[in-house]
Amino acid sequence: MIWATGFLIFWRRRQAEIAYQWNTLDMEPIEEIRSTFKGQLHRSPVTGKLEVYYPNWKRLLFRLLVTIPMIGINIMLVSFVILLIIRFQSWIDRQLKIGRLPHLMSLTEFLPKILLALVTTIFSDIYKRIARWLTNQENYREQRVHD
Predict the structure, then answer these.
(1) How many secondary structure helices (H) and strands (E) does the chain include?
(2) Which one of 2, 18, 69, 78 has the lowest number of neighbouring Cβ atoms within 10 Å?
(3) Where is each Anoctamin transmembrane domain found (predicted)?
(4) How far apart are CA 89 and CA 108, in angstroms?
């Protein structure tokens, strides 16, 4: 047990020494291109080979014209629906206090809370789908950046 622990400690130290000597200490592993990455064939200035290329300005333009407005619309829509549900809850509370709604109908008190839970779940699912679609449309080259 002691030998195995010591071996691992010395191995990590030796690995760090070799990485420092070979100047590979801060290197990141090479990632494969995502299978859904789309673009035009373009000659690489580094390797001289044809590679799939997607300009950054197209991604930035999509973010500015589609992604950011879509997020803003979603935030306003969710805020509006939550505000309506809160107003509905306060209306029910006033009606119960006045006596227009019988207290036997305790389900009426919980209806806005149930509605809020349902709306939150539904909007969460819808937003996940929209976020996936927007991320796919931004067309990232590596999976790490896409995630």
Answers:
(1) 5, 2
(2) 2
(3) 1-144
(4) 9
Residue 19 amino acid letter = A
Beta-bridge partners for 41: 52
Read off the pLDDT of each residue in 63-72 and give the average, rounded to a whole number. Answer: 93
- Kindly state the tokens that stand for 75: 């935030």
Which tokens belong to 140? 């990232």
Query: pLDDT tier at 123 (50, 70, 90 boundaries)?
Result: very high
Q: Tally Cβ neighbours within 10 Å of residue 65.
A: 10
How many other CB atoms are found less than 10 A from the CB of residue 128? 10
Going by C-alpha positions, the residue among 46, 59, 68 that lies closest to residue 130 is 68
pTM of the model: 0.65
pLDDT tens profile 74-114: 999 999 999 999 999 888 888 878 877 766 556 677 788 88
Q: Which amino acid is at 80?
A: F
